Amino acid sequence: MQAKLGSPKSRQHISKVTSICYYHLGRLCQIRNYVSREIMIQLVMSLVICRMDYCNSVLVGLPASILAPLQRVQNAAARLILGLSRRSHITPALKQLHWLPIKFCITFKVATLMYNIFHQRTPYLKDLVAFSPSASASATVIHNQVRCRPSNKNTVRSTCILSQRP
Q1: pLDDT (tens place) for every residue of the chain, 166 residues total
Q2: Strands (DSSP E) found in the chain
Q3: What pairing do the DSSP bridges indicate for beta strands 129-131 and 146-150?
Q4: Where in the chain are the domains?
C-alpha cells in the first residue's frame, strides 16, 4: 500500500482503522468496571493500539489534519484506561502511559526501521533502500523519500530526515 499526500487511499485506510478501533473501544468501555487497569491496558494495546500501529509507516509525512482521526482514537484509548473525562488534558495522560502522539509514533517507527537497515540488522529489507557511496552515507527509501545519515563516521547513531513528497 503506497499512500500519497492526502490521497484517497490513505484517507480510506485511516477511516477504516479508526472505525474498527472505536468499535473495540466501545466494547472495552462496557467492561472497564470489571477488569483491573493492568488488564485494560493489555486489552487496549492488543485490540486498539496494535491495529493503529500496523502499516502506519505508509502515513509518514502526512499533515496533522489527516492524522487527526488516529490521534483522537489514541486519546480516547488513554482516557478509557485512565478513567479521564473528555475535558481532561490528554498530554499528561499520554506521558503517564509512555505513549508518543501518532505523528511521532510514525516518525519513530520509520527512523528505527532505517537505523536497522543502515546497520544491516534487517537484511531482507536492504534491497528497498539505496545507500549513496558518499562520505555522508545517506540512504533513501524509494517510495517514502526518507533519508538516513549517520551523525559522523565514528558514531553508530544515525538521524533520519523525512522529506516532503512531491
Answers
A1: 444 555 788 899 999 999 999 999 999 999 999 999 999 999 999 999 999 999 888 898 899 999 999 999 999 999 999 999 999 999 999 999 999 999 999 999 998 988 888 888 888 887 787 766 554 444 544 444 455 454 444 433 344 444 444 4
A2: 129-131, 139-141, 146-150, 158-162
A3: unpaired
A4: 8-99, 108-162
Nearest to 147 by CA among 133, 137, 157: 137
Model confidence, pTM: 0.74
As given in the structure block, the three cell numbers for residue 84 are 479521564
Report the interhelical angle of 8-31 vs 37-44 (nearest 10°).
160
Burial class (CB in 10 A: 0-12, 13-18, 19+), 83: exposed
